[in-house]
Amino acid sequence: MAPGNPNNAEKIAKLNSTLLTITDMSEMEKSAFVNLVTRYMSEGAQDLDWSKIKSPNDEIIVLYDSLTPTTEDPAEIKKILDKVAVLKLNGGLGTSMGFTGPRSLIEVRNGLTFLDFTVVQVAALNSKYGCNVPLLLMNSINTHDDTQKALEKYSKSNINIHTFNQSQYPLLGVEDFSPLPSKGQTAKYEWYVSGYPPGHGDVFPGLINSGLLDTLLGQGREYVFVANADNLGAVVDLNILKHLVENECEYCMEVTPKTLADGKGGTLISYEEKLQLMEIAQVPGERVNEFKSMEKFNIFNTNNLWVNLKGIKRLAEADAFKMEIIPIFKEVEGGKALQLEMAAGAAIRSDLYTLAGGFVVQNQARTNPFNPFIELGPDFKMVSNFLSRFKSIPSIIELDSLNVIGDVWFGSGIILKGNVMISASVKFEIPDGVVLADKTLNIETLSEAELAKSDLKWIPFTWKLFMSLRTTAAYL
């Protein structure tokens, strides 16, 4: 849709008329959606001039190690924590991993889900410092009911939990901009149902429309910490909060150096002397590989955001929330559809991390400061398949990289070290207690003689891999 097209006014009028027939949206949602579509028609999506994209300068990035440590005085820490609320983006389903409910309800460790860990972390802060940090969950129509049921067990905990739903926006037909619900499409295709519809930029209108923004301000809160519900590393960092309060910062995004596993994640760029977030959906097809590389775009957006509540209020009252629109084109039954999003800004379950006071921390036994790069093939994509393929999660304290392709099954007590690659064209079982250190195994081409040259014993027909007793004993 070209900006300034004379047919735009006619299409917006038709959109308004059609929305009257849709009962699943509130009047506030309909109004906001029409404004979003109108902006897209008049402005279009931002067309980035690739030659003008630069990396942010050092003045923009504040190194974590340069922050002044927080005082050890519990009373002072309580005073800082009384200024913050934690908000988790909980609108995503686990369908891409074969899980039917909210992604936050996937079991992570020892029977605890992502949501359980979040509640435990916030409750631990409240208990330790005698504060009352609230937890806010932004759900979607897809996750609301299951989340409410899961929260029932925390009704008597020392934490105030508030939930609200993000906006429910329909997909649009590309040709005529008519909402799919008005065309008799099935529920699967009517609404934004993947990720965080309509983009995690909806968190700010959601806070305002739910009344929670005014509630938090009335409690004396100054900042909201926003993070994805399935990010266990997203915790309230006292040093960051102290820095924001003392320097009166209104917006902060936590970023890290990009790794091989972060190719598709958003990054910070400097564009026409302005700092902005660039998502992969904004990248031209011929530039995607360059975007994924770690040379030009070496910053990874963790999607952990710290935002000043008064700043949100000020921008809302001035109608100044003009976050960039990201158009997502989808193939649906009957043709193409358009999804308009806005942007506000898992490691394998193993001994790599331990639990301390409700928080996930890296195991001190690991000497490498960087996490291992782990890539598992399609056979591991679904949660049920992932769980069934591991009798127990291997030890990866000394692992640098792991790449698994094919129908591979892991026994219990397995240790992985260095760089390990396993490729199998048939069902391949790794039995209990095996140690794989800097091994490349191609089960389709590796012969019995070649296996014998390594410290591995091959038993044909059963397709099982064994370490020799001598080698195994060396690691006991």
UniProtKB/TrEMBL annotation:
It comes from Aquilegia coerulea. Substrate binds at residue 200. It is an enzyme of class 2 (transferase). One of its GO terms (molecular function) is UTP:glucose-1-phosphate uridylyltransferase activity. It holds the Pfam family UDPGP. It catalyses: alpha-D-glucose 1-phosphate + UTP + H(+) = UDP-alpha-D-glucose + diphosphate. SUPFAM superfamilies: Nucleotide-diphospho-sugar transferases. Its EC number is 2.7.7.9. The keyword Transferase applies. Belongs to the UDPGP type 1 family. GO terms for biological process: UDP-alpha-D-glucose metabolic process. The lineage of its organism: Eukaryota, Viridiplantae, Streptophyta, Embryophyta, Tracheophyta. This is UTP--glucose-1-phosphate uridylyltransferase. InterPro entries: Nucleotide-diphossugar_trans, UDPGP_fam, UDPGP_trans. Keywords: Nucleotidyltransferase, Transferase.
